[in-house]
Design brief:
This protein has about 220 residues and is of the alpha/beta class. It has one domain: NAD(P)-binding Rossmann-like Domain (Rossmann fold). It contains 6 helices and 7 strands. Strands 3-2-1-4-5-6-7 form a 7-stranded parallel beta sheet, sandwiched between helices. Strand 6, helix 6 and strand 7 form a beta-alpha-beta unit. Helix 1 packs across helix 6, helix 3 packs parallel to helix 4 and helix 4 runs parallel beside helix 5. Bound molecules: 5-hydroxy-NICOTINAMIDE-ADENINE-DINUCLEOTIDE PHOSPHATE (NJP). 5-hydroxy-NICOTINAMIDE-ADENINE-DINUCLEOTIDE PHOSPHATE binds next to helix 1 and helix 4.
Protein backbone atom coordinates (compact mmCIF):
# COMPACT_ATOMS: atom_id res chain seq x y z
CA UNK A 1 0.00 0.00 0.00
CA UNK A 2 1.20 3.50 -0.76
CA UNK A 3 1.83 5.99 2.01
CA UNK A 4 -0.84 8.58 2.74
CA UNK A 5 0.24 12.17 3.43
CA UNK A 6 -1.81 15.14 4.63
CA UNK A 7 -0.51 18.58 3.64
CA UNK A 8 -1.80 21.86 5.08
CA UNK A 9 -1.24 25.02 3.07
CA UNK A 10 -1.20 22.94 -0.12
CA UNK A 11 -2.83 25.55 -2.37
CA UNK A 12 0.38 27.40 -3.26
CA UNK A 13 4.12 27.73 -2.79
CA UNK A 14 5.93 25.14 -0.66
CA UNK A 15 2.83 23.02 0.03
CA UNK A 16 1.91 22.82 -3.64
CA UNK A 17 5.46 21.93 -4.75
CA UNK A 18 5.65 19.25 -2.05
CA UNK A 19 2.31 17.77 -3.13
CA UNK A 20 3.49 17.49 -6.74
CA UNK A 21 6.78 15.85 -5.74
CA UNK A 22 5.14 13.47 -3.26
CA UNK A 23 2.60 12.45 -5.91
CA UNK A 24 5.42 11.72 -8.39
CA UNK A 25 6.97 9.49 -5.72
CA UNK A 26 3.74 7.52 -5.32
CA UNK A 27 2.24 8.94 -2.13
CA UNK A 28 -1.51 9.41 -1.83
CA UNK A 29 -2.46 12.89 -0.73
CA UNK A 30 -4.97 14.84 1.29
CA UNK A 31 -4.52 18.51 0.36
CA UNK A 32 -5.89 21.34 2.47
CA UNK A 33 -6.00 25.15 2.60
CA UNK A 34 -8.75 27.76 2.81
CA UNK A 35 -9.15 28.35 -0.97
CA UNK A 36 -10.97 25.66 -2.93
CA UNK A 37 -10.12 26.61 -6.52
CA UNK A 38 -6.31 26.23 -6.48
CA UNK A 39 -6.65 22.98 -4.51
CA UNK A 40 -9.09 21.58 -7.05
CA UNK A 41 -6.79 22.38 -9.97
CA UNK A 42 -3.88 20.78 -8.09
CA UNK A 43 -5.94 17.61 -7.58
CA UNK A 44 -6.69 17.58 -11.33
CA UNK A 45 -3.00 17.94 -12.11
CA UNK A 46 -2.09 15.07 -9.77
CA UNK A 47 -5.06 12.83 -10.59
CA UNK A 48 -8.21 12.35 -8.53
CA UNK A 49 -7.28 8.70 -7.88
CA UNK A 50 -4.18 9.82 -5.95
CA UNK A 51 -5.29 13.01 -4.21
CA UNK A 52 -8.29 14.81 -2.83
CA UNK A 53 -8.73 18.24 -1.34
CA UNK A 54 -10.61 19.71 1.60
CA UNK A 55 -10.95 23.35 2.57
CA UNK A 56 -10.17 24.25 6.14
CA UNK A 57 -8.76 27.10 8.18
CA UNK A 58 -6.03 25.49 10.31
CA UNK A 59 -6.65 27.95 13.12
CA UNK A 60 -10.19 26.55 13.57
CA UNK A 61 -10.11 23.34 15.57
CA UNK A 62 -13.50 22.08 14.35
CA UNK A 63 -12.64 22.56 10.68
CA UNK A 64 -9.29 20.82 11.12
CA UNK A 65 -11.00 18.01 13.01
CA UNK A 66 -13.36 17.38 10.06
CA UNK A 67 -10.38 17.30 7.69
CA UNK A 68 -8.69 14.54 9.65
CA UNK A 69 -11.95 12.59 9.94
CA UNK A 70 -12.55 12.79 6.17
CA UNK A 71 -8.94 11.87 5.39
CA UNK A 72 -9.31 8.70 7.46
CA UNK A 73 -12.71 7.94 5.90
CA UNK A 74 -11.16 8.15 2.46
CA UNK A 75 -7.75 6.47 2.88
CA UNK A 76 -8.04 4.66 6.23
CA UNK A 77 -4.59 5.76 7.42
CA UNK A 78 -2.06 8.59 7.70
CA UNK A 79 1.66 7.92 7.30
CA UNK A 80 2.91 11.49 7.04
CA UNK A 81 1.60 14.94 7.90
CA UNK A 82 3.18 18.11 6.53
CA UNK A 83 1.98 20.97 8.76
CA UNK A 84 3.00 23.74 6.41
CA UNK A 85 0.19 26.33 6.51
CA UNK A 86 1.49 29.62 7.80
CA UNK A 87 1.18 33.32 7.36
CA UNK A 88 3.43 36.33 7.81
CA UNK A 89 2.11 39.83 8.30
CA UNK A 90 4.53 42.64 7.52
CA UNK A 91 4.72 44.74 10.66
CA UNK A 92 6.12 48.23 11.18
CA UNK A 93 8.16 47.10 14.20
CA UNK A 94 7.00 45.87 17.59
CA UNK A 95 6.29 49.36 18.95
CA UNK A 96 3.91 50.14 16.11
CA UNK A 97 2.53 46.70 15.18
CA UNK A 98 -1.15 45.83 15.30
CA UNK A 99 -1.92 43.41 18.18
CA UNK A 100 -5.01 42.03 16.42
CA UNK A 101 -2.92 41.14 13.35
CA UNK A 102 -0.38 39.46 15.64
CA UNK A 103 -3.10 37.39 17.27
CA UNK A 104 -4.44 36.21 13.90
CA UNK A 105 -0.94 35.30 12.70
CA UNK A 106 -0.14 33.43 15.93
CA UNK A 107 -3.48 31.60 15.70
CA UNK A 108 -2.41 30.19 12.33
CA UNK A 109 1.33 29.66 12.89
CA UNK A 110 1.07 28.33 16.46
CA UNK A 111 -2.46 27.15 17.29
CA UNK A 112 -3.04 25.85 13.75
CA UNK A 113 0.13 23.75 14.03
CA UNK A 114 -0.90 22.44 17.44
CA UNK A 115 -4.42 21.52 16.30
CA UNK A 116 -2.95 19.68 13.31
CA UNK A 117 -0.57 17.77 15.58
CA UNK A 118 -3.15 16.94 18.24
CA UNK A 119 -5.66 15.66 15.70
CA UNK A 120 -3.29 13.61 13.53
CA UNK A 121 -0.97 12.07 16.15
CA UNK A 122 -3.35 9.21 17.07
CA UNK A 123 -3.33 8.17 13.39
CA UNK A 124 0.45 8.60 13.03
CA UNK A 125 0.94 6.47 16.13
CA UNK A 126 -0.93 3.65 14.37
CA UNK A 127 1.48 3.73 11.40
CA UNK A 128 4.67 4.83 13.24
CA UNK A 129 4.31 7.84 10.99
CA UNK A 130 6.10 11.11 10.38
CA UNK A 131 5.13 14.68 11.37
CA UNK A 132 6.91 17.39 9.38
CA UNK A 133 6.49 21.12 9.93
CA UNK A 134 7.58 24.29 8.18
CA UNK A 135 9.65 26.47 10.47
CA UNK A 136 11.88 29.25 9.18
CA UNK A 137 15.21 30.98 9.22
CA UNK A 138 13.21 34.06 10.29
CA UNK A 139 14.54 35.25 13.61
CA UNK A 140 18.06 34.43 12.41
CA UNK A 141 17.66 36.59 9.32
CA UNK A 142 15.30 39.55 8.80
CA UNK A 143 12.05 38.13 7.38
CA UNK A 144 8.61 39.63 8.05
CA UNK A 145 9.48 41.10 11.44
CA UNK A 146 9.98 40.01 15.05
CA UNK A 147 6.58 38.51 15.81
CA UNK A 148 6.55 36.32 12.70
CA UNK A 149 10.13 35.25 13.46
CA UNK A 150 9.19 34.37 17.03
CA UNK A 151 6.22 32.30 15.85
CA UNK A 152 8.64 30.26 13.75
CA UNK A 153 10.98 29.76 16.74
CA UNK A 154 7.92 28.26 18.40
CA UNK A 155 7.74 25.76 15.54
CA UNK A 156 11.39 24.83 16.12
CA UNK A 157 10.87 24.43 19.87
CA UNK A 158 7.70 22.40 19.47
CA UNK A 159 9.37 20.21 16.83
CA UNK A 160 12.34 19.44 19.07
CA UNK A 161 10.03 18.33 21.88
CA UNK A 162 7.53 16.51 19.70
CA UNK A 163 10.39 14.47 18.20
CA UNK A 164 11.10 13.13 21.71
CA UNK A 165 7.42 12.41 22.32
CA UNK A 166 7.03 10.57 19.01
CA UNK A 167 10.27 8.60 19.43
CA UNK A 168 8.55 6.75 22.31
CA UNK A 169 6.48 4.92 19.70
CA UNK A 170 9.04 4.97 16.85
CA UNK A 171 7.43 7.95 15.14
CA UNK A 172 9.53 10.63 13.45
CA UNK A 173 9.35 14.41 13.52
CA UNK A 174 11.12 16.93 11.27
CA UNK A 175 11.36 20.73 11.20
CA UNK A 176 12.17 22.20 7.79
CA UNK A 177 13.55 25.74 8.21
CA UNK A 178 13.94 27.65 4.96
CA UNK A 179 15.21 31.15 4.35
CA UNK A 180 13.49 33.25 1.72
CA UNK A 181 11.52 31.15 -0.80
CA UNK A 182 9.98 32.52 -4.00
CA UNK A 183 6.26 32.04 -3.20
CA UNK A 184 3.06 34.03 -2.78
CA UNK A 185 4.18 34.66 0.79
CA UNK A 186 5.72 37.83 -0.67
CA UNK A 187 3.98 40.50 -2.76
CA UNK A 188 6.98 40.74 -5.09
CA UNK A 189 8.58 37.75 -6.88
CA UNK A 190 11.93 36.60 -5.44
CA UNK A 191 13.40 34.67 -8.39
CA UNK A 192 16.97 34.73 -7.01
CA UNK A 193 15.95 33.10 -3.68
CA UNK A 194 15.02 29.47 -2.93
CA UNK A 195 12.51 27.75 -5.19
CA UNK A 196 9.60 25.94 -3.48
CA UNK A 197 10.98 22.86 -5.20
CA UNK A 198 14.09 23.07 -2.98
CA UNK A 199 11.92 22.82 0.12
CA UNK A 200 9.86 19.98 -1.38
CA UNK A 201 13.13 18.09 -1.99
CA UNK A 202 14.03 18.50 1.71
CA UNK A 203 10.62 17.22 2.86
CA UNK A 204 10.87 14.11 0.70
CA UNK A 205 14.48 13.54 1.81
CA UNK A 206 13.27 13.39 5.42
CA UNK A 207 10.37 11.09 4.55
CA UNK A 208 12.51 8.75 2.45
CA UNK A 209 15.23 8.31 5.09
CA UNK A 210 15.45 4.80 6.55
CA UNK A 211 12.89 4.27 9.36
CA UNK A 212 15.81 4.03 11.83
CA UNK A 213 16.87 7.58 10.92
CA UNK A 214 14.94 10.64 12.05
CA UNK A 215 15.99 13.77 10.15
CA UNK A 216 15.14 16.26 12.89
CA UNK A 217 15.95 19.62 11.35
CA UNK A 218 16.85 20.84 7.89
CA UNK A 219 18.06 24.43 7.38
CA UNK A 220 18.01 25.83 3.86
CA UNK A 221 19.24 29.28 2.85
CA UNK A 222 19.59 30.88 -0.56
CA UNK A 223 23.20 31.02 -1.75
CA UNK A 224 22.95 34.58 -3.06
O1 LIG B 1 3.60 30.75 1.18
P1 LIG B 1 2.23 30.77 0.37
P2 LIG B 1 4.72 29.62 1.39
N1 LIG B 1 -5.56 27.95 7.19
O2 LIG B 1 1.60 32.05 0.77
C1 LIG B 1 -2.15 28.47 3.44
C2 LIG B 1 6.79 29.22 5.65
N2 LIG B 1 7.96 29.96 5.19
O3 LIG B 1 4.52 28.45 0.57
O4 LIG B 1 -5.54 29.23 2.99
C3 LIG B 1 -5.18 27.09 6.24
O5 LIG B 1 2.49 30.51 -1.08
C4 LIG B 1 -2.37 29.16 2.11
O6 LIG B 1 -3.61 28.83 1.50
P3 LIG B 1 -4.99 29.66 1.67
C5 LIG B 1 5.55 30.02 5.92
O7 LIG B 1 5.56 30.62 7.19
C6 LIG B 1 7.95 30.61 4.01
O8 LIG B 1 6.00 30.34 1.33
O9 LIG B 1 -5.82 29.18 0.54
N3 LIG B 1 -4.25 27.36 5.33
C7 LIG B 1 -1.26 28.57 1.27
O10 LIG B 1 -1.62 27.30 0.79
C8 LIG B 1 4.50 28.93 5.84
O11 LIG B 1 4.38 28.26 7.07
C9 LIG B 1 9.10 31.30 3.61
O12 LIG B 1 -4.63 31.11 1.61
C10 LIG B 1 -3.69 28.58 5.36
C11 LIG B 1 -0.14 28.40 2.29
O13 LIG B 1 -0.75 28.39 3.59
C12 LIG B 1 5.07 27.95 4.80
O14 LIG B 1 6.43 28.33 4.62
C13 LIG B 1 10.23 31.29 4.40
C14 LIG B 1 -4.03 29.54 6.32
C15 LIG B 1 0.84 29.54 2.21
O15 LIG B 1 1.42 29.53 0.95
C16 LIG B 1 4.41 27.98 3.45
O16 LIG B 1 4.43 29.28 2.92
C17 LIG B 1 10.19 30.63 5.58
C18 LIG B 1 -5.02 29.18 7.26
N4 LIG B 1 -5.44 30.03 8.20
C19 LIG B 1 9.07 29.96 5.98
N5 LIG B 1 -3.30 30.66 6.09
C20 LIG B 1 9.17 32.05 2.34
N6 LIG B 1 8.23 31.94 1.43
O17 LIG B 1 10.18 32.77 2.15
C21 LIG B 1 -2.53 30.39 5.03
O18 LIG B 1 11.30 30.66 6.31
N7 LIG B 1 -2.75 29.14 4.57
Amino acid sequence: TSKVMLITGASSGIGRATALKAAREGLQLVLTARSAAPLESLVQEIGADKAFSLTSDVSKFDEQSKVVEQAIDRFGRLDAVFANAGTGVDQPGTENGDPEEWRQMLDVNIMGLLWTAKLTLPHLRATKGHFIMTGSQAGRIALKGSIYGASKWFVRGFGANLAEEMAEWDGRCTVIAPGMVNTEFFDEPKPDKLDPQDVADAVLFAINAEPRCNVREIFLTPTF
